[in-house]
Amino acid sequence: MGPVSFWPIQRVVVTGGTGFLGRRVVARLQAVGCPAVHAFGRAQYDLRRIDDITRLLNDTRPTLIVHMAAVVGGIGANRERPADFFYENLMMGVQLFHEAWKAGVPKLAIVGTVCAYPKFAPVPFQEADLWNGYPEETNAPYGLAKKMLLVQSQAYRQQHGFNSIFLLPTNLYGPGDNFDPRSSHVIPALIRKCVEAKERGDDHIEVWGDGSASREFLFVDDAAAGLVAAAETYNGSEPVNLGTGNEMTIAEIVDRVKACVGFTGRVVWDATKPNGQPRRRLDTERARREFGFVARTPFDAGLRATVDWYLESRRTADAPAHR
Predict the structure, then answer these.
(1) I want to staple 277 with a disulfide (CB 3.0 to 4.6 A). Which of 30, 136, 242, 290 is the partner?
(2) Rounded to whole angstroms, how far apart are CA atoms 13 and 199?
(3) Active site includes 117?
(4) What per-residue confidence (pLDDT) applies to 41?
């Protein structure tokens, strides 16, 4: 009789499982044959409250927790709410981690953030560079709150032998992203700006910064595949980057979004607003070596799918209700 495969015997809790990445992870878990996947939002279990965490663990009895619940946003949101971004992300993660260990959960996979890296980390970012400086100021409270979970992961493994892993995905994009201009990240924000400017007949759009900063983007379905692969086969204490290994300047990204949307106006750069971290590109060798992860989706294909989804969601929202 051969060994029992991993997923059919798992009970998985996905915190943040109703969010952008969470929905893709849930779908991926179902696709690989996991029979019991529990996803929820804050209304059901508020991870800031220990009572809700213990109730979650008692209700679900997980064999694996994938923790990706987070308060997230772009540069503007991080500047406006640094205390919220620090406190809520720290408390959700630290308390869930401790209660999962107390409850004897066999494994915990933590989704960190590329914002944890130092502002001037050597490019490409290697996991060994995580502690070689302070994060970029506008998102440091968020990045440091998430990075404390790496400290907790390694400390609990050392003292208690608790199996937890820590993953560092780069910036994500894709269908289902957040397009609210008050809190969205750069790609959905640019898509919305270009679509609305095109519809109004504007001759320009305004974009924060000067366009020189660079970013690396990972398609959301690729990120989900990487997380699920790591949850199954990686059991190490060292953090692992998830990305493509490719970077583009914000100016290049704006040009690609404009072309994809069909907006032909000018770009007016607002250099009084911050660029954020100067450069972002991950070294992805550890993920390839440890659990065979390689991103599959070309940027332009992922961007096209994202724009198409956004346009369709607007048409659906604008369609008159049938009586």
Answers:
(1) 136
(2) 42
(3) no
(4) 85
- Dihedrals φ, ψ of 30, to 5°? -65, -35
Q: Are 140 and 146 in contact (CB under 8 A)?
A: no
User: Helix (H, G, I), strand (E, B), or coil: what is residue 244?
Assistant: coil
Cβ neighbours of residue 17 closer than 8 Å, sequence gap 6 or more: 23, 25, 26, 37, 38, 39, 40, 66, 68
Strands 11-15 and 266-270, by their bridges, are unpaired
What pLDDT score was predicted for residue 135? Answer: 94
The rounded distance, in Å, linking the Cα atoms of 40 and 212 is: 39
Cβ atoms 182, 76 nearer than 8 A: yes
Among residues 117, 142, 173, 310, the one annotated as catalytic is: 142
- Percent helix, strand, coil in the chain, to 5, is 45, 15, 35
In tens, the pLDDT along 179-205 reads 998 878 899 999 999 999 999 999 999
CATH 3.40.50.720, domain 9-179+217-245+279-296, yes or no:
yes
- Cα of first residue to Cα of last residue in the chain, in angstroms, is 58
CA distances from 122 to 117, 138, 147, 280 (A): 10, 19, 18, 9
Q: Report the half-sphere exposure of 282 (CA within 13 A, side-chain side).
A: 28
Task: Give CA–CA dist 6/2, Å, rounded.
Answer: 12
Q: Which long-range contacts (CB under 8 A, 24 or more apart) does 6-11 make?
A: 6/232, 6/233, 7/32, 7/33, 7/34, 7/232, 8/33, 8/34, 8/35, 9/63, 10/34, 10/35, 10/36, 10/63, 10/64, 11/36, 11/38, 11/60, 11/61, 11/62, 11/63, 11/64
Do 134 and 122 contact (CB within 8 A), yes or no? no
